[in-house]
Amino acid sequence: MDALHGLIYGFGVALTGSNLLACFLGVLVGTIVGVLPGIGPIGAMALLIPSTYSLGPTSALIMLSGIFYGAMYGGSTTSILVNVPGEAASVVTTIDGYRLARKGRGGAALAIAAVGSFVAGTVGLVGLMLFAPPLASLALEFGPPEYFSLTLLGLIFLSRIGSASVLKSFLMVGFGLLLGTVGMDAISGVPRFTFGNLELMQGVELVPVAMGLYGIGEVLIIAERITGIPDLIKVKFRELFPTRAEWKKAFPPMIRGTGVGFFLGLIPGPAAILSTFVSYAMEKKLSKHPEEFGQGAIEGVAGPESANNSATAGSMVPLLALGIPFAPPTALLLGALTIHGVQPGPLLMSKHPEIFWGVVASMYIGNAVLLILNLPLVGVFASILRLPQHILMGFILLLCLVGTFSINNSFLDIYILLGMGVVGYILRKLDFDMAPLILAVVLGPILEKTLRQSLFYARGDAWAIFGRPYTAFLLSVGVVLIILPPLIRRLRRTRRTPAE
Amino acid sequence: MGKPLSRIFFSFTLLGGAYLAGSLALSAGTIEQPGAGFFPRMVGIFILCLGMAGWIGSLRSGEGKKSADPVFPEGKNLQRVIALVLVILLFTVLLQTLGYGICSAFLMIAVLRLLGMRSWGQTIILALLTAGVSYFFFVLLDIPLPRGSLFS
After folding, report:
1. What is the DSSP letter of A242?
2. Does residue B47 sit in the same domain as residue B83?
3. Is the pLDDT of residue B64 over 50?
4. Are residues B53 and B80 in the same domain?
5. What is the average per-residue pLDDT within B99-104?
6. Which residue among A167, A409, A411 places its CB closest to the CB of B92?
7. pLDDT of B1 higher than 50
8. N or C: which end of chain A has fewer CB within 10 A?
9. Which residue of A has its CA nearest to B91?
10. B120 lies in a domain?
11. Which pTM does this prediction carry?
């Protein structure tokens, strides 16, 4: 199926009543959690996975991905109006967005952010449609050694570019891999680290881990300090129109942000967050007036807000084409697919075209809905922040507890949730990055299975693994990633010492 | 950040060691046909080495310096965080017998009080309201709720 026919077919799927409703609900929830600090897209997606049980896999994925990209729109609202980023991918937007709001150009900043998100979201989708099918057909030639090296590379990459130190990130990877081995061994059927507990035989679920680390951990961090309700800057509807000069300034950053975001989305890592920082730095460097950045430069809103949206589209590529998630939100999407009994991988597109094309088409619809939701109704969403924080935190707690329970009707999962909440609280306070941990929980079992299959297939002959071109390439990239940065640092240091 | 960080690295070293010991009880198989213990052994060694490297590193660098800002809250603020954890734990224990309806209302009362609500009257009304709204919301979304062994 070529892209055009696929898309037409996808719209046929996405425009049915239940899928439209799923899409609308997804982007609505996404916008709300994007606005609210304390619960981001990951927590919300984990929370709503159970409620998708009664839906089909297509509707489930449409709704959950709606939360993912919807949150990118909502996040800008509070960054601009209250200087509080609703989620991590909107931190950069506070720098210039809030300054613009203080200058009375908050409406324009919101409009530019929403339009930039829309442009990037839709252009990113075109990229998704063009990239994913050829990647999937390439991946059909992949055997266990290729998948093993790809997964390994993903984990190395993520640990290398995260915010925390490499040692801490690798330790998180190790911890995630450890959690992933709990339960019955998929190949030999032997129980591992279950301590005789029957419920643990199924393994540690992703949802309590993700919700504990992000949801409960966040509630505990917020509980440290009692804060009041933040001041909102009011925006009138007619202030939403940017001036011609503002449009002119904002357009090139939007396009550049779109490109940067999409390509960062393709590679492993917290792309949505990272892309905003890269785009901001790039715009500042390219600008003729870099001194305006930090004082309310519209480019500083347009670039990053576009970048995080096309990054979401980009990060869907490895998930839908290879069945390997490279970022925590897509890891949750993978979890949802498996719960619904769909085997993710390169065959997804040919075996379940309704899922791939349906989701792609729904993302076009969702982006249009989001533009409408986020422009005229921006005041409504921003006023959610007036909800006192203790009520909000209580509600988030209830959501986490019930969401976790509903996966397996298991009380053990709630204890895991609470345990991971405390662990997440402590680790986050000490600047550990949670993304490698979440991803390792999901990728761990894939890594182990493909490693054992590869070794079985090689029969002791290392060349049978390392002699394969893709494997050799992927593994050498991994080795370079580990060796190169410390080497460069050492070289710089030795060069600096004689000069001193 | 010296002290708590080196403690965390030390805990990971212990965790890695215990996990490695546990994985030794599982069969490692051969290199042609790896068993259930093969991968866990690698992971165990990985965690053990990283934990130790981090621990030694933090002992060398961080411990002597005084930290300007304590990482973890102290006094009342710390008590609040611990109390919240205990409340959630209690909620989970009681949930099995009392069910969602009663427990969620009590959880909300505790959370609202802990996070700074003064008036008891307001707290109870708000807690009942939130618990009720959440109940309705979950039922609407078809999410299964624990009913409690006392009532079923």
Report:
1. P
2. no
3. no
4. no
5. 88
6. A411
7. no
8. C
9. A401
10. yes
11. 0.85
One-character DSSP codes across B2-28: HHHHHHHHHHHHHHHHHHHHHHHTS--
Q: Do A175 and B111 touch (CB under 8 A)?
A: no
Q: Looking at the structure, do residues B81 and B40 belong to the same domain, yes or no?
A: no
The partner residue sitting opposite B111, judged by closest CB among A390, A418, A448, is A390
Residue A183 pLDDT level (bands cut at 50, 70, 90):
very high
Q: Given an 8 Å threshold on Cβ–Cβ distance, is B134 in contact with A181?
A: no
Q: Which one of B41, B50, B52, B112 makes the best mutation probe of the A interface by having the most chain A beta carbons within 10 Å? A: B50
Residue B62: band (very low, low, confident or very high) from pLDDT cuts 50, 70, 90: low
Between A268 and B110, residue with greater pLDDT: B110
* CB-based contact, B115 to chain A, within 8 Å: yes
Last residue of a domain, one of B33, B61, B89: B61
Q: Please say if the pLDDT value at position A498 is more than 70.
A: no
| Domain region containing B136 | 75-140
Whether B81 and B57 map to the same domain: the answer is no
User: How many distinct structural domains can be found in chain B?
Assistant: 2
Which residues of A fall within a CB distance of 8 Å from B134?
395, 398-399, 402
Which residues 347-406 in chain A show a CB within 8 A of chain B?
Answer: 389-391, 393-395, 397-399, 401-403, 405-406
Structure tokens at B152: 């079923």
Contact of B92 with chain A, judged by CB distance below 8 Å, is answered with: yes
Asked whether residue B147 is domain-assigned, the answer is no
Phi (first) and psi of residue A472, to 5 degrees:
-60, -45
Closest CA to A406 of B138, B80, B78, B69: B138
pLDDT band at A161 (very low <50, low <70, confident <90, very high): low
Among the partner-chain residues A171, A178, A223, the one whose CB lies closest to the CB of B81 is: A223
Complete DSSP assignment for A6-45 = HHHHHHHHHTSHHHHHHHHHHHHHHHHHHHSTT--HHHHH
**In this complex, is the C-beta atom of A203 within 8 Å of any C-beta atom belonging to chain B?**
no
Report the SS3 class of residue B30: coil
Count the alpha carbons within 13 Å of B100 in the hemisphere toward its beta carbon. 24
Check CB contact under 8 Å for B34 and A455: yes
Q: Of all residues in chain A, what percent carry a pLDDT higher than 70?
A: 95
- Residue B70, in any domain of the structure: no
Residue of A178, A437, A447 best to disrupt the B interface, most CBs of B under 10 A: A178
A390 with B145: Cβ contact below 8 A: no
Please report, to the nearest 10 degrees, the dihedral formed by the alpha carbons of residues A16, A18, A24, A25 taken in order: -170
Kindly state whether B15 is in contact with chain A, defined as any CB-CB distance less than 8 angstroms: yes
Pair of tokens at residue A6: 């696929």
